[in-house]
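HUMAN:
Just now I want nothing more than another pair of eyes on a protein record. I would be glad if you read both lines and explained how they fit together. I have put the entry right below:
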Amino acid sequence: MKKLTVWIAAALLLLTYSPVQSKAEAEKYPNSISSAETESVEVKALINRVNEINAMDKSAMSSSEKKELRKELRSIKRDVNEHSHGGAVYISGSLLLFIILLIIIF
């Protein structure tokens, strides 16, 4: 009975696995205009804003204005990171092994 559950768990894991290569091939030849182009325009605008902030003369600013600029830079960094990663979730090998062991045990 235990071997049967192990085989079923292994089969379910293999069925949920999707290779990264298939995703790369699908994105290589898009059928229509993707949202990646619009995201890249947004990212370029954010990068331009960062360059403007870096070019500013901050010595004449008050501390509250500098604080607002720092907050803006942090939010821009967060937005650029969200666009560049695409919300992908990566699982390390040790975590995958741990999950498989938990499935086998229970």
In short: The radius of gyration is 23 Å. The chain has five helices and no strands.
